[in-house]
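User: Predict the full complex structure for these chains.
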Amino acid sequence: MTSERILCPVCQVAFPLKEEKVPGKRVVCPVCGAVLVLEKGDASWVLRRPQDITPEEEIRARVENFARLRGYRFNEMKEPLIEALLKKYERYGDFYCPCKIDNIPENICPCLETRQGSVERNGRCHCGLFWK
Amino acid sequence: MKSVMLYALSTCPFCKMAKRFFESRNIPYNFVDVDLLPEEEKEKTVAEVQRISGRRAFPVIVIGEEVIVGYDELRIREALEK
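Assistant: Here is the predicted structure of the two-chain assembly.
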C-alpha cells in the first residue's frame, strides 16, 4: 500500500501519512515535530496548525516533539529561549529563530540548519535550544 | 586594552550572556541590538555583520582583530588575553 504524502505547513516538507485519515485528527510532523490537524481540503487532505491551543502550547509541543524525534536534550537555556520565541511570535507573527535577524520560513523553529543536522555537527543548535 | 564590539539581537539569550560576561568582569565593550535599529541602519549593520562573520546570526563578537561567531566563552577569554 502506498501512503499519500502530505505537506507540513511549518517546515514545508511532504511526508507520508500512513495513519487512517479522520478530520480533526492530531498529527505530529516527523520532520519538525509540529503538532498539526488533519482536514479535508477541496481536492485532498491537508494539514493545518491547530487553532485551539495557545502559541505557547504550540511551540512547547513542537520543540518537545522535535527533541524526542531526534534524541536531543534541553538544558537551562530552554525557558529563556521559549520566552524569546514567543517574543518573536508576538513581534513578527511566527516562531522565528531568536538569534537570527531574518524572519523567513527557513528560520522558523526548528530552523532549516537544525533540521539538516547542525546539532549533530556542533553539539547544539545555533541558539542553544537543542543539545546533542 | 583591546576594543570589544558585540553585535546582538534583543531576543537572543546567548547575546544576553555575552553582555553579562563583559559586565560582570568590568570589561569595557560596545554593543548594538541590531533588531532594534531603524530600518536603514539595521540593513547597513547586518551587511557589516555578514561581511565580517559570513552569517546573519548572532551574537558576533569582535575583540581586537578577532571575530567570534556565537557565544564561546573560551574563545572570548583567549581573545582578551592574547
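The domain at 4-81 of chain B is CATH 3.40.30.10 (Glutaredoxin).
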